[in-house]
TrEMBL record:
It comes from the Bacteria. Residues 1-176 form the N-acetyltransferase domain. This is GNAT superfamily N-acetyltransferase.
Length: 176
């Protein structure tokens, strides 16, 4: 696998080539500052054009504000993408935001997501920032991934991010 920084909008458009399909049977909800697993069903298939365009624009904004976009390639095929937004967030504006992380369906559980997070943690340490803010889709696999990395329900809820994604589970990952 080749991990490298993506540097332009044409590379950001590769996002649509990642197969994000997934069957979801459970998700988490936040209740009394605790996450609770509940039954729910989603059949995630192909990308919606508006959603892809929104993500491409967000990656472009992140890149233009000195953030970091990482693409993962198996030969010429993109199999993962992640974006680190360096605009400070969290209640105390002391965290970077893991803005997006997608791994191709056929490449999950191979450590690609872990490696992207490690790259982001190193970048964050260089800037003397101690945590990543994660506003994550509440699906069981997604939240379990972050919890297994050591993320916790954030104590510094960013109200702007919460207003954008109130059903997300808002986490923080200490990087020290």
């Amino acid at each position: 696998m080749i991990y490298r920084q993506l540097n332009n909008i044409n590379e950001f458009k590769l996002l649509k080539d990642i197969d994000r399909s997934e069957i979801v049977n459970e998700k988490y909800i936040l209740k009394n500052n605790k996450i609770i697993l509940v039954k729910d069903y989603y059949n995630i298939t192909s990308w919606i054009d508006e959603e892809v365009n929104e993500y491409i624009n967000r990656m472009n904004d992140i890149y233009n504000s000195k953030g970091l976009i990482i693409g993962v390639f198996d030969n010429e095929k993109i199999v993962g993408i992640g974006a680190l937004d360096k605009n400070l967030c969290g209640k105390n504006k002391n965290m970077y935001k893991l803005d997006l992380l997608y791994i191709h369906h056929d490449y999950r559980s191979l450590g690609i997501g872990n490696k992207i997070i490690e790259i982001f943690k190193e970048e964050t340490k260089k800037d003397n920032i101690n945590a990543l803010y994660i506003s994550a889709t509440p699906f069981k696999n997604t939240i379990d991934f972050y919890l297994n990395l050591g993320a916790i329900v954030t104590k510094e809820l960013d109200s702007n991010l919460f207003d954008l994604e109130p059903e997300d589970i808002h986490l923080e990952l200490n990087i020290k």
